[in-house]
Design goal:
EC number (chains A, B, C, D): 2.6.1.76
InterPro entries (chains A, B, C, D): Aminotrans_3, Aminotrans_3_PPA_site, Dat, Ectoine_EctB, PyrdxlP-dep_Trfase, PyrdxlP-dep_Trfase_major, PyrdxlP-dep_Trfase_small
Radius of gyration of chain A: 21 Å
Number of helices of chain A: 14
CATH superfamily of the largest domain in chain A: Type I PLP-dependent aspartate aminotransferase-like (Major domain)
Distance between the termini of chain A: 17 Å
Helix content of chain A: 25-40%
CATH class of the largest domain in chain A: Alpha Beta
GO molecular function (chains A, B, C, D): diaminobutyrate-2-oxoglutarate transaminase activity
Largest sheet of chain A: 7 strands, mixed
Pathway (chains A, B, C, D): Amine and polyamine biosynthesis; ectoine biosynthesis; L-ectoine from L-aspartate 4-semialdehyde: step 1/3
Protein name (chains A, B, C, D): Diaminobutyrate--2-oxoglutarate transaminase
Oligomer: homotetramer
Amino acid sequence: MGNDIPKNSNMEVFETLESEVRSYSRGWPAVFESAKGYKIRDTEGREYIDFFAGAGTLNYGHNDDRMQEKLIEYIKNDGIIHSLDMGTNPRKDFLEAFNDIILKPRNLSYKVMFPGPTGTNSVESALKIARKVTGRDTIISFTNAFHGMTLGSLSVTGNIFKRRGAGVPLADTVFMPFDHYIEGVDTADYMERYLADNGSGVDLPAAVILETVQGEGGINAASMDWLKKIHALCKKYDILLIVDDIQAGNGRTGTFFSFEPAGIEPDIICLSKSIGGFGLPMAVTLIKPEYDQWAPGEHNGTFRGNNMAFIAAVEAFRYWKNSDFENSVNEKAAYMAKEIERLIRTYPGLQGSPRGRGLMQGIAVGKENLASEICAEAFRNGLIVETSGPADEVVKFLPPLIIDKAGLAEGFEILEKSIQNVL
Amino acid sequence: MGNDIPKNSNMEVFETLESEVRSYSRGWPAVFESAKGYKIRDTEGREYIDFFAGAGTLNYGHNDDRMQEKLIEYIKNDGIIHSLDMGTNPRKDFLEAFNDIILKPRNLSYKVMFPGPTGTNSVESALKIARKVTGRDTIISFTNAFHGMTLGSLSVTGNIFKRRGAGVPLADTVFMPFDHYIEGVDTADYMERYLADNGSGVDLPAAVILETVQGEGGINAASMDWLKKIHALCKKYDILLIVDDIQAGNGRTGTFFSFEPAGIEPDIICLSKSIGGFGLPMAVTLIKPEYDQWAPGEHNGTFRGNNMAFIAAVEAFRYWKNSDFENSVNEKAAYMAKEIERLIRTYPGLQGSPRGRGLMQGIAVGKENLASEICAEAFRNGLIVETSGPADEVVKFLPPLIIDKAGLAEGFEILEKSIQNVL
Amino acid sequence: MGNDIPKNSNMEVFETLESEVRSYSRGWPAVFESAKGYKIRDTEGREYIDFFAGAGTLNYGHNDDRMQEKLIEYIKNDGIIHSLDMGTNPRKDFLEAFNDIILKPRNLSYKVMFPGPTGTNSVESALKIARKVTGRDTIISFTNAFHGMTLGSLSVTGNIFKRRGAGVPLADTVFMPFDHYIEGVDTADYMERYLADNGSGVDLPAAVILETVQGEGGINAASMDWLKKIHALCKKYDILLIVDDIQAGNGRTGTFFSFEPAGIEPDIICLSKSIGGFGLPMAVTLIKPEYDQWAPGEHNGTFRGNNMAFIAAVEAFRYWKNSDFENSVNEKAAYMAKEIERLIRTYPGLQGSPRGRGLMQGIAVGKENLASEICAEAFRNGLIVETSGPADEVVKFLPPLIIDKAGLAEGFEILEKSIQNVL
Amino acid sequence: MGNDIPKNSNMEVFETLESEVRSYSRGWPAVFESAKGYKIRDTEGREYIDFFAGAGTLNYGHNDDRMQEKLIEYIKNDGIIHSLDMGTNPRKDFLEAFNDIILKPRNLSYKVMFPGPTGTNSVESALKIARKVTGRDTIISFTNAFHGMTLGSLSVTGNIFKRRGAGVPLADTVFMPFDHYIEGVDTADYMERYLADNGSGVDLPAAVILETVQGEGGINAASMDWLKKIHALCKKYDILLIVDDIQAGNGRTGTFFSFEPAGIEPDIICLSKSIGGFGLPMAVTLIKPEYDQWAPGEHNGTFRGNNMAFIAAVEAFRYWKNSDFENSVNEKAAYMAKEIERLIRTYPGLQGSPRGRGLMQGIAVGKENLASEICAEAFRNGLIVETSGPADEVVKFLPPLIIDKAGLAEGFEILEKSIQNVL
């Protein structure tokens, strides 16, 4: 993020008492106070359009009325707040609603695991069960993948700076080229070259893990053909396919699961971020019944039963009872694509190229620091938008899915003004 | 947990839709509905005394009135719910209150890191920064340690069943004997034997990580002398000392930090569970300023800013503004110790021995399955209490710290009846 | 190797007393007695042309007269046989001759390390010093590489069957595609794609290790252009380049070092096999002086001073005092290439393609088991020749370099007859 | 070794051309020329008594007449020198003689594996087969163990300086305390405490590897009781027992195998050093037939068939045809023990304590550098003797087993004079 942002005296507490590891409070030096829908307000009364959505956690916007209501009611009734994996009404309701509204209509059958309330917990549990079930060690991940910051998830994350943070070598993983990684090379074929060759040095893996659209890695969207090919390779070589749908799932690309248009069925699916509906910590790992070979308690975690998140999650599922929501996301995604195209055309100084799909799109720009400067300027002008990619080269648009056309238009207006100012 | 518990038809949803990994809902086959203070109610109207406190997450009891009030108010005002590590009022308030009420009066100075909202996130971040700062790989942990289920935390966890769940070898760790592990051996001296010997095979570690009272490992309380010796060894050999105070901290043993009576200052402290006050997911990693050498964003996580938890946490600190709460915990701990002693004396069939300190105590029993049977019978009689230890040999008492004498007495009454029934 | 070879009662001792791991004595079921030049005799008086040369260890043929003489004289004089790395005359003579005859005329400057008398010892020492000097962990190796069977060398070896033999995951290595590995892809460019990308998941490596001609991996010869590109990449990214010249060095490809035609200077070179001249165990690791940062004794080994091998090695260097030997190897290599071409043309049933360079060539055949059958039949007809490649798909020709044209011709005659019989 | 040794101009070649890793040529700055029995001569005509025996490789002394004869004869007859694991007469003779003379009379049954000609090759192969057979990863080794310098062997070697040379973390090993490591603790009981405890953090190992007398680690001799206990633990917990008898075997402690007096049968035995009789590179791995589960070629190595070593080895076995040799070793060992006791008594300035058994004994001294100074002075006075132990605190006596009493007496005379000079 930009460095030329004026000092905000409100930020002193964070600078003095909080660890140097803090990041967003550096790029967006404000104290945020309230939010509704796709708008955020800071303590000085400034309002921002949200093209960030809590890094994909607030697909249903801020402070959805019905979720607020249900949560307040639950608290007032002395509802069980913390319950590990004990039986509670909200947990029961979540399991039923998820099965009835999400899985069944898509002809999917998965056992639901609560691995702890964060994405990295879900990824770690997916890697563990894949290794247990297959008796193998290696996991194939892809260039520019991001799966989390605990040791197992970090081992399948591509970012070198973040990997180095482990302080120890990250083992048992191989990084294959993601779709489009090398011009003119079908990277699925390339991967099969390794799998088919007894001398390739790549041991038969337990699993392949992938994001269909790489969020942190630069809004790289895999083609449906490529996903089908990878899925077929997994079947052919008896490898489990894990789809990390933490950022791209929950409707972000237009369908509930991001892989639906490819017609594939992963063996394991990781969900977090917007699964909790309201922005509360929650994660699930979906496991095909035949691979649900856990012993009781073999993976656990104190916060694996966040009842408040279950309640909001159930509310969120109402968006999926018919196809209206899905249709509206797709319309807005088309609008966004057009806006991106227009900006790239209008401002050749961007050396821009479009990225992504659904409401997970971006503009990759051609000059160093340019994306960061645009985001910093956008913040000054009232738009919250962040960069992505290994060189922070992508301006990334992740508005709440419930945003309306007016909000989108206003966001792109601020963005355009910011581009003009920066160029 | 016991296997002879009658089927509860309410549990079918969990059995059908949830992963085999679920555990507490097997031992306590009920759907829990509401809770207040130290009491829990299930959907069939049964009431239970809580000697479990969410595995140490509910030190301040269920649904504290003032926390409820503050949370409802925040939601009503459209407060920012999810914010990663952006600046918000609740995060600011938490940092200030923690510094003013907890750190300063104890003459402690730490930078506060929000590593993600679970204990294992805190442990992973602690291991990372210790390795970065020292440039070394090895971590010394102790027999029967429990630090979490993600790959890094699991590597310092002693339980073999849980370790095996990783599916890959767990590297870069050495398990030294905890205090009292071998009769007649001063295990701190033993550890120094290894550190001082250039041929011991134990490479100079980045850090030593320990719990002062091992919660999952069998309520093993280290003596203050041993803690001092380990602390001195760390200083002597230039090793960082990490105290995982996730279960034993937050007042559980009588002082806010469990190591206070030893007069030591760890280099890194992990807090979670009850730090969030209300049972909401939250964790912090405290790092001595000189070791806070993170680069911005070197560790991150989507849910590292759980504002609802910050609000409840600040409310919880009111318990620490004077010494009343601390004193009451110590009184109740003394009462608990006496009750334990009495039960061991009265029921020689237990072959019991006392464990732990503060409101983190237990009875280790001498016969296989006996502890599980007692807990199952206690559940039937209206007491929630679980086992602990590598062979589930300990009945573990972790009531909310706010329990009153009457509650404690009632709990022990049920326990005694259950012991009688089982023996 | 073929399974239809008749039982040889002489082999019973091996079958009864030796481990199941034995391999060559299965494919060539004979007890060998004596050998001279390029001919071997078994105990039943059968004579074989040697197109194998001890897997590249007998470049100077069997029982070179002058080596025999020198060795007998040394033994008779009670010369020091075993000396670790103490000073002895043969060690001194070797160091001087190697420097004067091999290094200086090629304008090369390396410190000579004796890492233990086998190739894998040399590779292990190379990996260790590369990691020490750079402070990094990762090593880049290539598909179908073979570097040895101890844990470090095995981790950079591509063969999956042999890797699995480790019984533990092999860490800290990445396998890049060797030259020509993927049709139409410049694999050096591909490798740079990974190195240049901060998100590729491939951490900056300590070293790249390669064979210029992969012996066990299928006689895959890298082009000089590719070697230059890899060398340039190493310079650009500050990575050490290790050339494992254990099989391809010692004149096997026509020059003493196999990389000479590329005009590159590796940072570390591994030599073994024919460096000992007579077939006696010996290995050296050549290290650029600026990287010779070992502490005394940081790597050692009981047999790192094999004086008998030093004596024979010095004799072997006489072949390199002028260019006659080199020229003769090149002539024979050209003859071999022609013969290979002719066989492929004449026998389309082979679906053959030529492999390799120098006197390290082969025919890759298109049908499963065909190469093994040809080798088995050749053995029955008096030619010792083995297969290579991840699917044993290459018939590999490695005659002693001192073979004459008549010997080569006779060998290819037997080969042709064997091909006819098998097809 | 001592630093005050005068420059020897003969050593310049080594200083200039050889790697900094060289060690013995620093402490013993001479060029050695010839040797017979227990005496060595340098190029300047100085004679030395050998109390070092090539670090245990020359148990049968230098240049045994009959071995010389047989080797010369074989070379003269153009015997096969290099043969990988093809059948040859010397290999056959070795297998038969080893079985008939060594194994059968001791009621032992092992398959013989030729893993490559060095000790570390044998250890690596032992670890591999143990992991394969059990399907487990962890190996238990002991404090101050030395097993070799390649990555697998180094991982079970205790010396921190040598471990650090790996440049990567050494995984999958646990270091238990060797016999007598902690005063007053039965370390076998201690080890069982870990094995029996499901929470100890020590995963069930594939194997335990040990030396009965730790040569490099300080001449620490395990008691027969301790060996029996460790053996029984291995049986009880279904763990393979590997005895690394590379230095302590081949008669060094009085019996052919060092563990014979304990009456135990290891599952795997590593032999090297003196197994080759004449000081030529050779190693074998002995595997109980039921564990010989190698696939053909799953482990290999170019120099695994060193025929010259086989020939000398067979000659060496003549020493074991009756008990004379064994008896003489035991007599000399008793003499050595008395001399050590006398020196310790006579020179209290040594603060000496005796170490070891058989002809593998030493004096541990109480002052830093003292052992090194004694060895340096001994060298100046004509005795070759080295230090051992993690702090080089032991003067280590390893004369050839064929030494006579006069030789021993002369050696101890020089030693005593050197002690006097140094103190």
